[in-house]
């Protein structure tokens, strides 16, 4: 390795330099690496600090390995870049797919359910969010609008209970659980909670009836879409506003037109959201990762147990406790395995089979006077170390300009 730039090496005051960079022997590398990383800076700034100051073979790779495997840096690393939006599949019929979540306001609890197709919102004040109470309200709402094919929740209590599991199975409902600590994975329910909470706060401040406000919201079209009541019930709801009776007659909505508008809106939302996003690598069972117990906590090590769904994984920590996390909350370990099996020599040069040994530095053989002496310049290429590729090709490095060229 050093032979290829031997003319750049010099010794000053007992230190070996390559141009202006001090060559670090392998015995001192670990100590130098600790000194380099004392401020826990990132890779780019660290490399810019040591560039032209220090040198040893594969220095950049070893610095990258050290930074990416630093426990302190891992614990305090920033969150992952957001991934491209993965929208829910749009239903083709009203009340075919619904989402549910809880709302807490002024020590009162509410169950909020919204239809993916019509955006029709149902709300029920509950005394407790235990399984039996929640199930009774679900049954009451489903008895009015029908049983949905799919129900989307965040998987928290009581949705994770055995009683609720038995309920959805007995009613023939597909229960889809969104990723924990990722509100946008159940964005429809989160949006409904935000709307209803804002409505209740304003009604309380203004002293108006919240049920009349909810009626008006259900009766109001949004953009190019019909109102939630029209899309769900094919009719306008009678309210406190004066209205012609002809407008209250049932009228079947154009569902194909509604689907086209919904798909267009979903595509526009995805296009704006995907700016600055990037796909993260797909993990598999057995991969070593880091994750957070809570969004504000530190990164801790864990192991992928299984894939729970799209971008969703089950992780087991070192205590054996299992957690379900989205890919955005998982950080893979690029240096979990050794990158090279070669061992460095006293200069830090890996011993590989592709590099031929340096020219022999032992005493020269006795010269036979009968042999013809050839020009040493013509045979110099035969003595130079040759790097051979995995396919057997000889790799020839380009000849670089050196100060010794002035002497010729």
From TrEMBL:
One of its GO terms (biological process) is DNA integration. InterPro entries: Integrase_cat-core (IPR001584), Integrase_H2C2 (IPR041588), Retrovirus_Pol_polyprotein (IPR050951), RNaseH-like_sf (IPR012337), RNaseH_sf (IPR036397). This is RNA-directed DNA polymerase. PROSITE patterns: INTEGRASE. It is an enzyme of class 2 (transferase). Residues 90-202 form the Integrase catalytic domain. Residues 350-363, 371-390 have a biased composition (Polar residues).
